[in-house]
Design a protein that fits this description.
With about 180 residues, the chain is mostly helical.
């Protein structure tokens, strides 16, 4: 390095060097750790966001579909008093309803689930793009323009309207109304 040049230090590089030099004993994912388990480099935080593990047991953790798709056989089918089918027919009908719904859902998701996920991912990506690159900048521009108007509008009102209203008030100040009762 020549004269007048100084090495710029960054907190990230210094923390990594000091942790590597001192033998980092922190666990994977803890603040300040630079190495993961078994001495492997830790995955970058921005990459970890896109590679979340999927919970295959609880597939609706935010309960989006609690009220929508819980349809049981009893919710759809019911026989009135006095008009009962054979018990075996009723049992087989319930099984057929449940199993056919289960397999129909599985076949539909196997056929259309991935394409639908791609379409929805594309749609939400487009919405996010629109929000980040168009809607918010336009809104901020609009708010900046309104800020400009917020400061100039009262000045214009005071300069134009105040003299007019003061003059009108001066003219109307001496008008008196008298009410008389006629008999």
């Amino acid at each position: 390095q020549g004269p007048g040049f100084q090495r710029e230090s960054s907190p990230c590089s210094e923390a990594a060097l000091s942790a590597a030099g001192k033998g980092n004993t922190r666990g994977f994912g803890e603040p300040g750790s630079t190495m993961g388990e078994q001495g492997q480099p830790k995955e970058a935080p921005h990459l970890a966001e896109h590679t979340k593990e999927i919970d295959l047991v609880t597939r609706d953790p935010k309960h989006l579909n609690d009220e929508i798709v819980k349809v049981e056989f009893d919710d759809v089918m019911g026989e009135p008093e006095g008009f009962y089918s054979f018990s075996s027919v009723w049992r087989i009908s319930q099984s057929a309803f449940t199993v056919s719904g289960y397999w129909c859902y599985r076949v539909l998701t196997a056929t259309f689930g991935i394409p639908a996920a791609i379409v929805w991912g594309f749609l939400y990506a487009c919405l996010s793009f629109w929000q980040v690159w168009a809607a918010i900048p336009c809104l901020r521009c609009y708010l900046l323009e309104l800020e400009c108007l917020r400061t100039t509008f009262p000045i214009c009102i005071q300069a134009i309207c105040d003299p007019f209203f003061h003059a009108a008030g001066g003219l109307l100040l001496n008008i008196r109304f008298a009410l008389r009762k006629e008999s």
